[in-house]
Amino acid sequence: RANAGKTTILQRVCNTCDSPEIRNSAGERIDPALLKASKGLHNIENEMVFQSKPGFIFHDSRGFEAGDESEFAQVKALIARRSKETNLKDQVYAIWYCIPMDEASRSFTEGEVKFFSQ
What we know:
Elements: H1 6-13, E1 21-23, H2 32-37, E2 47-49, H3 69-83, H4 110-117
Antiparallel strand pairs: 1-2
């Protein structure tokens, strides 16, 4: 979910306060200024890498709150494709789903229920 503190959690896991380097699917570094201009419009194919833990590669989606079917399909496709990879560095090892805890009455959205049901 948006604004759930995902980057903060990843910084703690990677023992850093630095921002991650963002790379496209070809491994080329993306200019951070371009990313700031499109805040909230994540491309799940992009890789987030912290210099303190270069072996950990993270992917961030926009989330399912908006009910965007294309985002759901992109996430599902990435997971399906990566689950078939034979090279260890290209496989998915974990999926973290972050939920902000400051929204006590917030229930799962329809898109979230759909994701966890499939």
